[in-house]
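Format notes (please read before filing issues)

Several people have asked whether sequences and structure tokens are stored in separate files. They are not. Every record keeps both together, in the order shown below: the sequence lines, then the token lines. Line labels are part of the format and must not be stripped during preprocessing.
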Amino acid sequence: MSFLIRVQLPDTPGTLGAVATALGTIGADILSVDVVERGGGVAIDDMVVELPSGRLPDAVITAAESVEGVEVDAVRPYAGVLDTHRELELVEQIADRPASGLAVLVEGVPRIIRAGWAIVVSVSAGGVQRLASSSAAPEVAITHLPWLPLERATILDAEDTWVPETWQELGTELAATPLGKPDKALLVGRPGGPMFRAAEVARLAHLAGIVAVVLDG
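Then the structure lines:
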């Protein structure tokens, strides 16, 4: 079974190799590594690892944190696409199918930033509208979005009063970015974490900006 682990580690030569060696001692096979954020002498990496049958994910945490200075932020099952740099491919797909562009967007975004689901929402005098939802998006009704209109991409308070109770129970981390207009937004959820990093939100904003231009074009 594959797991996505997010690790904080010293941004020094050899540290990632030491983590890989430690994971190898428990039979974990590293399938991909994606640098999420880097700065201040610390790197945040997402690693997709495959564990042998019968091996518990707790073993991953123990092995990784056996390397000095390494902390595991989160571990969760992962069955997504391993190519983490698919923005251009997604934009091309949307450009080829503009009539269903929003549907293509919400299915592609979770694979790119390793989230659980994505929804495009808008707000008007008639209330909140759900314009598109990924296949894994929760179906619970959203009746109030106090953060719309939205001027810039942001991490949302996952415990705010507007957040459905079922999302809170799952520990869903949330981020959103405007999609062309402040009253339309791309809302992304990551049940069980880990929390969204600033670099991920910037990446989301950049992608949404390009897609908005393509769909308006």
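For reference, the curators noted about this record: The two ends are 42 Å apart (CA to CA). The first strand starts at residue 2 and ends at 10.
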